[in-house]
Specification:
With 252 residues, this protein is α/β, with parallel strands linked by helices. It is built from eleven helices and eight strands. The structure holds 2-phosphoglycolic acid.
């Protein structure tokens, strides 16, 4: 059985005080929900240690993710954050290859593979983001783009490693634009992604969670999550409101 997951990507939003408030609100609202859906939040680096202590003291079911990490464990890499340190402060996941990282910080598939390998070595799970840009969809190259993002990165992992990966399909044209992929478009791509994973890892494909991301909100989550190959969501804007985020979690 594959796991249902809803993950909130806060990006570079909230100060620490606002972040703590948001976590408390979410924690309160998810306490009585069924445990079937995994709840993950990815606050900025600066908030992680404080939020981690809060989650521990509240015995919360919310799991913590970082939004990025270094492609080295330690050393002379000024300004970078080691995956080992993230694991040490309680992160269970790291978002890898978000389109904003690929686009604004020129992160390549090679670099992302190195990060994923280190995240796995540190006993965390990568949430690996893939997705096409608008011009790629309009020129009918979206399947090729997504296929290379999988083959150039995930095909280099062992089966045991792949089992720990969550994939997030986020069409770039839907991120932060208010323009969501239709549930047909999402299902079509998620089914395709599962097929590409199956070509190399036939025994894992059915169990890997594939999340949809891109303007997912309470009003469209139910329709998206109802599709066979959509196992949850990676939520940006709507994860900054506890009420909206929890409404999305309840959409299964
Ligand atoms: P959005 O962002 O929900 O604000 O579109 C999703 C993401 O970037 O992960």
């Amino acid at each position: 059985m594959r796991k249902r997951v809803v993950a909130g990507n806060w990006k570079m939003n909230t100060n620490i005080e606002e972040g703590l408030l948001l976590v408390k609100e979410i924690d309160h609202l998810v306490k009585d929900l069924s445990q079937e859906t995994g709840v993950i939040i990815a606050p900025p680096f600066t908030h992680l240690a404080t939020i981690s202590s809060l989650l521990k003291s509240e015995n919360s079911r919310i799991l913590l993710a970082a939004q990025n990490c270094a492609d080295h464990q330690s050393g002379a890499y000024t300004g970078e954050v080691s995956p080992n340190t993230l694991a040490e402060i309680g992160c269970k996941y790291v978002i890898i290859g978000h389109s904003e990282r690929r686009e604004y910080y020129s992160e390549t598939n090679d670099l992302l593979l190195r990060k994923i390998e280190l995240v796995l070595k540190a006993n965390m799970s990568p949430i690996y983001c893939i997705g096409e840009r608008l011009e790629e969809r309009e020129s009918n190259r979206h399947f090729d783009v997504v296929s290379s993002q999988i083959k150039e990165v995930l095909y280099n992992l062992s089966e045991e490693e792949l089992e720990k990966v969550i994939i997030a399909y986020e069409p770039v044209w839907a991120i932060g634009t208010g323009k969501t992929a239709s549930s047909d478009q999402a299902e079509e791509m998620h089914e395709f992604i599962r097929g590409i994973v199956a070509d190399k890892f036939p025994s894992c494909a059915d169990n890997i969670s594939i999340l949809y991301g891109g303007s997912c909100k309470p009003s469209n989550a139910q329709e998206l999550f109802a599709r066979k190959n959509v196992d949850g969501g990676l939520i940006g804007g709507a994860s900054l409101s506890a009420v909206d985020f929890v409404a999305i979690i309840k959409s299964f």
